[in-house]
Amino acid sequence: xxxxxxxxxxxxxxxxxxxxxxxxxxxxxxxxxxxxxxxxxxxxxxxxxxxxxxxxxxxxxxxxxxxxxxxxxxxxxxxxxxxxxxxxxxxxxxxxxxxxxxxxxxxxxxxxxxxxxxxxxxxxxxxxxxxxxxxxxxxxxxxxxxxxxxxxxxxxxxxxxxxxxxxxxxxxxxxxxxxxxxxxxxxxxxxxxxxxxxxxxxxxxxxxxxxxxxxxxxxxxxxxxxxxxxxxxxxxxxxxxxxxxxxxxxxxxxxxxxxxxxxxxxxxxxxxxxxxxxxxxxxxxxxxxxxxxxxxxxxxxxxxxxxxxxxxxxx
Length: 315
Description:
By secondary structure, this protein is an alpha+beta fold. The chain has helices at residues 2-7, 10-65, 69-82, 157-207, 222-257, 284-291, 302-308, 310-314; strands at residues 86-92, 98-101, 124-130, 133-142, 148-155, 274-275, 281-282.
């Protein structure tokens, strides 16, 4: 994995990092919504259901005492139709006999005896998982259970709908932030990675011997200063190489002008002429002058003066 990341360009890393951060934040937000927010919405639904059930329990005591079953059932149906979150309402007497309910097709046997409120408790809540989704069954004792128990089922469909709306909003936010992040990454790519890539390409060109390569500096930020430093460095290196080439040329010209005598020279033992490479005999001064920059001034030494001009020497 590390080798793969090393092979990726800065541009690709920037895009992957931006999208990764956005996706991570989105996943964390969705997890928060499906756990913490879901529980908070259920608690809020439960509190609302308890409030409705208590009000309904207080309204149903008189019809129960006066045995007005029809009036009791009408009260339950009116509340049921007024609140879309209520899935059902029913009241059972202490003998677990149903006094009234809002089920049109008959009372479900599976709800009989469910969520029995503890003695002395104000209410009891139990979560039920049904084919219609999650339901909070809220049980309210009537006159501390002497008249029975009122059951009110709060549907979790609203909670699920609100939660789905929140998650959908989060998804759209993630999409929007991702698009904005990609746009930001592209902008940063134009401002940062492209100058860096241009600098790397120029460095490779200079390494290959192209000292005329320059960096286009469009701003004076850190990258611009780096580009100006690079251009200045190349200018100095180019000047140094030109000076070095000029010095080498001068040395070569100087060496070419230098003439030296070396090796074994064939010289006549009588007249002192020297034989050159072509076999010709040259006067000593002519040969030396042709092989070096030495010049001769003629004179007579004391021994020759004595031998050739003895009288002149006496005078």
